[in-house]
Amino acid sequence: MTSSGGTLCPRPQFQREHWQSLDGAWDFSLDPQGLWRQPDQVEWTTHIQVPFSPETRASGVFETGFYRVCWYRRDVTAPRHEGQRVILHFGAVDYRAEVWVNGLRLGEHEGGYTPFSFDITPHIVTSDAVTVVVRAEDDPLDLAKPRGKQDWQREPHSIWYPRTTGIWQTVWLEVVPNTALSSLRWTASLDRWELSLEASLDGDRLVGCSLNL
Question: Less Cβ around it within 10 Å: N or C end of the chain?
């Protein structure tokens, strides 16, 4: 499985052979007061183009009013992954995200500017059908949370930008080995005239593994 249309991998330094973009049309619904807590409570009313936030015209929603929560849903077919793992990646969701797969809650992430991911392999053991649901909470009246230059008023004023809610960066599935690189950290030392690399692993613990550059 590779992404269609020649789309570039969202993480070029970690590009793997098998990945699939989930950008495009998702089921969508606004929850202005944040009353729904579970996916089965949601009344799906429209669609949205991910990864454009609902405040934008490109999303197809273009709702610039005040709402506390919005919901997303997408049905996908899981990739072939014999002996490997399937990772669900989110580039960024503003501000607090809860994620379900096939009705089971995977967890949550707080912070509208940082990527996060979940291993969904245990949820696709008996079927390749996967339903992803995201609850994105971003109270527009909460001025204490980090917001960058997002405006707190309905219409942007002065130097402030329009608000951004929900999924605003790419979502994708990726097939990785049971033990895989999760991050790299390069450190330069001018005094020693050297460049060091720290690699972090995710998945099964291996003894005696090595990294070749």
Answer: C
